[in-house]
Specification:
Distance between the termini: 39 Å
Largest sheet: 7 strands, mixed
Mean pLDDT: 97
Order of helices and strands: EEEEEEEEEEE
Low-confidence stretches: none
Helix content: under 10%
Number of strands: 11
Radius of gyration: 13 Å
């Protein structure tokens, strides 16, 4: 069964850090580009970060560049999103996405940045 499961979300104070993990099962991510998206209440889902299948190309939403880092471990079948210097406007549900001839989505993990 193909599955993406996001973990690592939670409540954090402004300026804090979280590391999200996207655990894939039922398929190998090594041919898939991986991405993280987020959706805040009342807003459309937006692409936050993207990484190519071999990890040699990345792309970031302008507002997170320099604060977030996307990475992957193809041996472990996991993609990561390291989020530093979090701000209240980063509050959203974060979704993992695997992209190849098919596209797979996880169910999301809530990230709340608040004092």
């Amino acid at each position: 069964q193909v599955q993406l499961v996001e973990t690592g979300g939670g409540l954090v104070q402004p300026g804090g850090s979280l590391r999200l993990s996207c655990i894939a099962s039922g398929f190998d991510i090594d041919v898939y580009s991986m991405a993280w998206h987020r959706q805040a209440p009342g807003k459309e889902r937006e692409l936050v970060a993207y990484i190519s299948n071999e990890g040699d190309a990345t792309h970031y939403l302008a507002s997170v560049k320099g604060r977030f880092t996307i990475s992957r471990d193809n041996y472990k079948n996991i993609a990561y999103l390291q989020m530093d210097d979090l701000r209240p406007e980063d509050t959203a549900v974060y979704f993992c996405n695997a992209i190849y001839s098919e596209r797979y989505w996880g169910r999301g993990t809530q990230v709340t940045v608040s004092s």
